[in-house]
Every structure is written in structure tokens, then in C-alpha cells.
Specification:
seven-stranded mixed sheet; binds pyridoxal-5'-phosphate; alpha/beta; four-stranded mixed sheet
């Protein structure tokens, strides 16, 4: 890339945007109406996208498959700079529980800004932070909240995962961790491994080595080739044996970390019986259980937290995404018995984002007042029903699964022979085509899972039944167009 190529691109003029109406109700109505009247979209290049390609790191992800330059958004709708309107089932990778620019969030952001509160507060307390902590504890089961400590972390989910690992390593004096195949816990690589100062590392035993992976109970492609209850029993027996056998070759770990429903891994819910069994094993072997609810937390799965479907409790809980109401924020909530950290054992400059705390509190208030967890359960079931009906007609749908509004459709090669459990090979090309055809029809969905073959639906929890039906209809059309 040469600088002359970059500067030869015409500059984008944002002025037409600022002259458009931004009043919430009128914007929502305008976007809904324009979405209703849209034609099939085509995706030619745009100077903003071209400049992004030239300037931004090759690691950029979403705009490769979703080539959009966004301008406005309201509720479930986003608009790009060409005036095309989409239903957003990506929603900031599951961050936007209340959708885009919810009035309660905008209002609290405006009033916090006007209040004179220091926006940058390190880990000093403020009335906003005090309220936020109460709100977070208020949505946890009472038995968890009663003994909880909160560690405010850097702004991303991965930051909180790192903090959780340091916490359990410090508390147990052990250096390894058990994680699961298909798990996603973020992209950082443990900056501590790069640190010259040995002081903060001593208590951890090791840096980021020592992760042992276990098979996740992925029912559709059971790692034990058994499926159903037999697969669950085999998985638990395998883990129990690994932890009990003095010659397993696996040291007693500092923690077991998992998602109760794997998100990026393909919207795979762990069966409640398996989660209960794992909780029992962790307790029996005296191993802290870390539940990563970065994506599944705050009502998304139809309960406030995904672990509640199994009636279990974590020792350590990792939270981010919806936690900050659309602004960056992450915390680790853990049982006080693990609070063996020395003062300053975990720190970070940006742990006091007051706007994110205010937006998080507003989000939790709306979630509770409008029972959006229950709404997610109902609307998710409605979407799954319609997707499953498509699956009855189309053999390229291998499985429809999920909890609440965390739903995946695994696309498979209909022409291939199924395996002994009835699963056909994943079809990543088809998934990419379907995603593209969805986009042409004004629907944003993301891909995930093995070989990127799972179409993921993570709409805002404020989506209506009519909008859910529209999502299913557009997906059905995209699928039909892609299978031709
Ligand atoms: N944990 C889970 C379960 C996630 O889904 C993600 C991100 O999608 C992360 C951790 C990492 O969060 P972040 O991307 O904010 O670092």
C-alpha cells in the first residue's frame, strides 16, 4: 500500500448524516419503513471500505464478510452510508441486549456526561460505580451474590478471562487449567508472559502454558460417538478419570473454565445434566469452576445467566459485552474464599469507565423491568420453531439449536453420507453463501462453529415477534437462493 493510493481516495463527507433526524421514535419508524420497502441489495465497493482495507490491519474480521460502512442505528436496525437498512442479528457480537441506541441508555449517558462526574476514575469508587455493583449483584442468584467479590478489569471480555485465570492460579497455587474444545475466551495472549519483572508472575506458577483441552458435549457431533445420555455419561466419566487417575499425566488444575453454551464455537448448549455433573466433579476434586458468560449473560439465553438453566453456581464468573450497555466493560465476580490477591495483584488503567457503568445499570434496569430474559426465551423458541420447520424441508440444515436468543443453524453437505449418529459433514461454503444472501435481503447474521458452518443469530433482546418472523422469512429465502 502506498500513501498516495490512500490519499487519492475521495474523503467521506459526514455532513448529510448530521442533518438527518435522530429522534429515537422517528428514526426507528423511518428505518423500519425503509427496511420494509428495500430492494435486493448489491455490494459494490465504497470509498470508506476501500480506505479501511488499505489502512486497517489485515486482522480485521467482520467487514470482510459483511462489507458495510455504518451510519445510523436504532433498535434492531442499522443503516449503512448508502442508506441500506438491515436487521442486525449480530448486535455487537451479542453486546447490545437493548439494541442500538436504546433511549434509556442514551438518556443516562447524556445525564452522566452533564453531571460533572469524573469519567476516568481508575478504581476509585463513585455513586455510579456503587450503584452499578449493586445492580450486577442484584441479577445474580442470591446465594452467589451473598459471598461475591467483584474485580473490575480492563474493558474487554478477554481482559476479564485473564484476570480470572490469575485469580484461580493465585488462590490454588496450581499452574494449569482445563478448558474445552470449541471454547472461545478472547484473543489476548497473556501480556504477562512478556513481562521482565518476575514479581507479579511468581504467584501464578506459570504463564499461559498448561492448558489441557477436554471434549465439550457437542450432541450433534458427540466427541465420544455416542450422543444423548450415553455421551453425557461418557464425558463425565472421562473427566472424572482424568482427575482421579494418579497416572493421567494431567496435573490437578487451578480451574476448569467453560461456556455453558459455546457461542463462537457454534451455539452449542451444554446439556443441564452434564453441567450438573461437571459442577459436582469440580467440587469433589476441589477445583474452582469458572463460567465465562461474556456472551451468554444478562438474559440472552432466556435466563439471566446460562448456568441457571442447570441450577448450578460458578465459583468464578466472567462478564462483559451486555454488562456495559454497549460500552466497554468487564468484570470477574467470584466467591470471597478465592480473594487471596494481594493489593494491586491485578490492575489496569481503564477499569473505571463511568459511562459504561451508567449504561450497564440502565441496561440492567430495563432488562429487569421488561423481563427481557423471559422475552428472549419466548422469542428464541419462536425463531427455533421456524428454523426447525425449514430444516424439515432442507437436508442442508444439519441442526438448529441454542437457548433463548442465542441460536445457531449448522449447515451441512446434504449430498454427503451421514455418520453413525446422523450428522453430515459441515458445509462452510454454503454457510458463507447464506450469510451473503441474508445480507442482500437486509439481514445481518454471523458465522461460527467448526469450519464456520454455523449461522449464528444474536439479535437484541428487544426484538419483536414480528421482527423474529421476518428474520426467519429472510433466512429461509437466503437459504433457498444459496441451495440452488
Ligand atoms: N468469552 C466469550 C464467551 C466470548 O464470546 C468472547 C467474545 O466473543 C470473549 C470471551 C472475549 O471477549 P472480547 O472480545 O471482548 O475480548
Amino acid at each position: 500500500m502506498s500513501l498516495s493510493t490512500v490519499s487519492s481516495l475521495p474523503a467521506f463527507d459526514p455532513s448529510p448524516l448530521s442533518s438527518r433526524p435522530t429522534h429515537v421514535a422517528s428514526l426507528a419508524a423511518e428505518l423500519a419503513e425503509r427496511h420494509r420497502r428495500r430492494a435486493l441489495y448489491d455490494f459494490d465497493d465504497h470509498p470508506l471500505l476501500e480506505r479501511q482495507r488499505q489502512r486497517e490491519s489485515n486482522a480485521r474480521t467482520y467487514p470482510r464478510r459483511l462489507p458495510l460502512a455504518l451510519s445510523r442505528a436504532q433498535g434492531v436496525y442499522v443503516e449503512d452510508v448508502l442508506g441500506r437498512v438491515f436487521i442486525d442479528c449480530l448486535a455487537g457480537a451479542g453486546t447490545l441486549a437493548l439494541g442500538h441506541n436504546h433511549p434509556a441508555v442514551i438518556e443516562v449517558l447524556e445525564s452522566t456526561l452533564r453531571s460533572g462526574l469524573p469519567l476516568h476514575a481508575l478504581d476509585f469508587t463513585t455513586p455510579v460505580k456503587d450503584r452499578f455493583m449493586q445492580d450486577v449483584l442484584g441479577v445474580l442468584p442470591v446465594s452467589v451474590a451473598r459471598h461475591a467479590r467483584i474485580q473490575f478489569c480492563g474493558p474487554t471480555g478477554a481482559d476479564a478471562v485473564e484476570a480470572a485465570l490469575k485469580l484461580v492460579k493465585t488462590a490454588t497455587g496450581r499452574g494449569t487449567v482445563l478448558a474445552f474444545q470449541g471454547a472461545y475466551h478472547g484473543m489476548t495472549h497473556g501480556a504477562l508472559t512478556l513481562m521482565g519483572n518476575l514479581g507479579p508472575k511468581v504467584a501464578l506458577g506459570s504463564s499461559l502454558q498448561g492448558v489441557q483441552f477436554l471434549p465439550y458435549p457437542y450432541e450433534y457431533r458427540c466427541p465420544f460417538g455416542l450422543g444423548g445420555n450415553a455421551g453425557i455419561a461418557a464425558s463425565l466419566a472421562y473427566i472424572d478419570n482424568l482427575l482421579s487417575d494418579p497416572e493421567s499425566g494431567v496435573p490437578k488444575p487451578a480451574a476448569i473454565i467453560l461456556e455453558a453454551i459455546q457461542g463462537e464455537g457454534g451455539m452449542i448448549p451444554a446439556p443441564p445434566a452434564w453441567l450438573k455433573g461437571l459442577r459436582g466433579l469440580a467440587t469433589r476434586h476441589d477445583i474452582p469452576l469458572i463460567l465465562d458468560e461474556v456472551q451468554s449473560g444478562f438474559g440472552r439465553t432466556g435466563r439471566m445467566f446460562a448456568f441457571e438453566h442447570a441450577g448450578i453456581e460458578p465459583d468464578v464468573l466472567v462478564l462483559s459485552k451486555a454488562l456495559g450497555g454497549g460500552l466497554p466493560m468487564s468484570v470477574v465476580v467470584y466467591h470471597e474464599r478465592f480473594d487471596t490477591w494481594r493489593p494491586g495483584a491485578h490492575a489496569g488503567t481503564f477499569r473505571g469507565n463511568q459511562l459504561a457503568m451508567a449504561a450497564g445499570s440502565a441496561t440492567i434496569s430495563v432488562l429487569r423491568a421488561e423481563r427481557l430474559d423471559a422475552a428472549a426465551a419466548e422469542l428464541g423458541a419462536r425463531l427455533q420453531l421456524q428454523l426447525a420447520a425449514l430444516g424439515k424441508e432442507l437436508a442442508c440444515i444439519g441442526e438448529v439449536r441454542g437457548r433463548g436468543l442465542m441460536i445457531g443453524v449448522e449447515l451441512v453437505d446434504a449430498a454427503a453420507m451421514p455418520d453413525a449418529l446422523g450428522a453430515r459433514p459441515a458445509h462452510s461454503d454454503l454457510a458463507a453463501r447464506v450469510q451473503r444472501e441474508c445480507l442482500r435481503r437486509g439481514l445481518i447474521v454471523e458465522l461460527g462453529g467448526r469450519h464456520g458452518s454455523v449461522v449464528r443469530f444474536l439479535p437484541p433482546l428487544i426484538i419483536t415477534a414480528a421482527q423474529i418472523d421476518e428474520v426467519a422469512r429472510l433466512f429461509g429465502q437466503a437459504l433457498a437462493a444459496s441451495c440452488q
